[in-house]
């Protein structure tokens, strides 16, 4: 069976978002589509998997709402099911920055296409920042980008307050997986007084899809919030897996000894299982952004 995964989002006022939950879930289930879609007053954010016809049907259903008529997905072939079931969730924010007054539908930074991104981030006057979480950055990022070492997107404003100054950092370029986090971050940074704020249109996924490998400045793989775990250039399936204990991506898990099944191989855990809950279980699980 041919199958694809589609990621999409849009910041738009959806006062009736709660009313859309059940009809959307029912339609997705009728199409045998699996995935996660978040609905909030500020918009929609989702990743779904199914046959090309089924995914197209869901996207057309969403676009039938005039507020979502220009919804633009990023689509990649994915033969292995990316999700176990379909979920439509109601949220306070479709991506949680923790500052409710930020409104990306009012203003955002300057979009930069994947084709023009290399020129921007190689400009020595531009400060390039990866807005993703530490476990995502660890498996891949753009050459020369700053890693803010955040554990949650909520931590990003605090990083900016302590490390960036609108009077010094005159040009700032942000990027993230699909574009949603950096879009919201640019809205907040403009409100915080930064004058020139740019963000990668379509995110890393669009860059990996459209920029030839010979021209790419991306290094490593890109973490995704589904069972693919990570993708690489051309949106091909990556090599990473998820540690079954701490939930973080690992490149090559060492085999577990048959004679010592309590041994775990994840470098983030580095403990041996005991009858008590191991320390690694307290590590924050990667969550859908």
Automatic annotation (TrEMBL):
UniProt entry keywords in alphabetical sequence: Oxidoreductase, tRNA processing
EC number from the UniProt entry: 1.14.-.-
Pfam families associated with the record: Rhodanese (PF00581), UPF0176_N (PF17773)
Reaction it catalyzes: uridine(34) in tRNA + AH2 + O2 = 5-hydroxyuridine(34) in tRNA + A + H2O
Domain Rhodanese per the UniProt entry, residue ranges: 122-216
GO molecular function, one term: oxidoreductase activity, acting on paired donors, with incorporation or reduction of molecular oxygen
Class of enzymatic activity (EC top level): oxidoreductase
GO biological process terms, semicolon-separated: tRNA modification
Family indicated by similarity: Belongs to the TrhO family.
Function: Catalyzes oxygen-dependent 5-hydroxyuridine (ho5U) modification at position 34 in tRNAs.
Listed name of the protein: tRNA uridine(34) hydroxylase
Gene that produces this protein: trhO
């Amino acid at each position: 069976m041919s199958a694809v995964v589609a990621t999409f989002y849009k910041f738009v006022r959806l006062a009736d978002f709660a009313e859309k939950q059940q009809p959307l879930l029912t339609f997705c289930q009728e199409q045998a589509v699996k995935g996660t879609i978040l609905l909030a007053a500020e918009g929609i954010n989702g990743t779904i998997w199914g046959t090309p016809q089924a995914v197209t049907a869901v996207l057309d259903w969403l676009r039938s709402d005039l507020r979502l008529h220009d919804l633009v997905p990023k689509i990649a072939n994915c033969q292995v099911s990316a999700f176990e079931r379909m979920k439509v969730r109601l949220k306070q924010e479709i991506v949680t920055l923790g500052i409710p007054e930020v409104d990306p539908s009012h203003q955002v930074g300057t979009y930069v296409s994947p084709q023009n991104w290399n020129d921007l981030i190689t400009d020595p006057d531009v400060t390039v920042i990866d807005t993703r979480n530490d476990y995502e950055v660890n498996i891949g990022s753009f050459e020369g980008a700053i890693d803010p070492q955040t554990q949650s997107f909520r931590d990003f404003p605090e990083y900016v307050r302590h490390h960036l100054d609108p009077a010094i950092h005159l040009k700032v370029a942000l990027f993230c997986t699909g574009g949603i986090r950096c879009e919201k971050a640019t809205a907040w940074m403009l409100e915080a007084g930064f004058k020139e704020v740019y963000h990668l249109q379509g995110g890393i996924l669009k860059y990996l899809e459209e920029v030839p490998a010979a021209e790419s400045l991306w290094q490593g793989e890109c973490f995704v919030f589904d069972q693919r775990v990570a993708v690489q250039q051309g949106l091909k399936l990556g090599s990473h897996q998820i540690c079954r204990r701490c939930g973080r991506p690992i490149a090559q898990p060492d085999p577990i000894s048959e004679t010592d099944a309590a041994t775990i191989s994840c470098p983030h855990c580095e403990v041996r299982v005991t009858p008590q809950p191991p320390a690694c279980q307290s590590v924050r699980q990667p969550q859908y952004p």
